């Protein structure tokens, strides 16, 4: 896809401009060329395995192709499978599609659930602002200009395919749509904090700087204060490093369970210099499986299965090692089906819009 932005919005210096574009567009590949009318930006998806850092990526793609649907590197961004019990995708951006589908089902009478808890098992908070903007009091995809509505799942799928919604920024729309969202974040890498109680979380707006300068983008911001009392209509966030704290004192209401496999092993961290700079968080597959079992044992002991209304799993190429995809993902899925009280079902991807952008 090609876009034109005003000349003054990007630096003429190649390095400065490339860094700005990389920060703004995230997972998209961007080429820029100066024209009389401004900077021409050409957006595309990675098509080579090297973009995902993992030397064993082909092994993981082969497993996905045999288990769900045939894909290559160029299809990673669109790889998603849903059935009546869960959703699994390669990239975490699709998690918002699952939440949108759930909201559409439960809000058919116009009543949005008032209090929702998100059990977020992930090495990242994913609270960045998506490339969505508000125009005429409605949300739009800043890349395509198409309308985006949390209660129209097809519009969310289109924004995921365009790159407007991507890994790292898929939670903010949920926080803007729900009256009360409580994020309980479980992570285990060095440096993760374990607060005594939840912190405030605010639905706010960030000003767009490139595709729609001056327009507002939905965002979530953490407050500095630790809350002793949670008031009605208040979003909260709590980070924990063990499952006991993660599952303690959960608010009432429905629960969304979200699992990113990079929680269990974050070998690559999306970092080209991962061999030199990534923290030592690369446990073997045997340890990954033990930890998966422990997490689900604690979920079962917490007696909350009946409250979990949606299960989403992300594999995270470029973060979680492809050599572990098959065994680890199948262990997670087996636990979910058992917790849900269902059995493994034949592949059926008809629920996911199949068009590409």
From TrEMBL:
This is Uncharacterized protein. It comes from Hymenobacter mellowenesis.
